[in-house]
Write a structure and sequence with these properties.
This protein has helices at residues 16-35, 61-65, 74-84; strands at residues 3-11, 39-44, 51-58, 88-96. By secondary structure, it is α+β, with helices and mostly antiparallel strands. The protein has a four-stranded antiparallel sheet. β2 (39-44) and β3 (51-58) form a beta hairpin. The chain starts with a strand and ends in a 7-residue tail after the last strand.
Amino acid sequence: MTAFLMVRAQVDAAAKKDFDRWYQDEHLPDALKAFKARSAWRGWSEVDSNVHYAVYEFDDLARARAIPGSEVIKPLIAELDRRWGDKVTRSREIVEVAQRIGG
């Protein structure tokens, strides 16, 4: 069953505009390619406007679980840390789809 790697980032308000542009133009496409994910999407929370979510879709749970701690994620983490330092804090979660109805 499909699984997702979800990345939640708390972004400093002063860095939000530049972070958004960088994530759109560089990070999301680079991560999609590096992870060999089926798809990726991202967005900003309506509850907390400084919270950004990125979601990567995988064919199965094993593929999603393989990403955190892997060699392919390390350069992406390093680049994000280098660029944004303490202006962005992140957490990651793996979710396996248990049920899907419609579309």
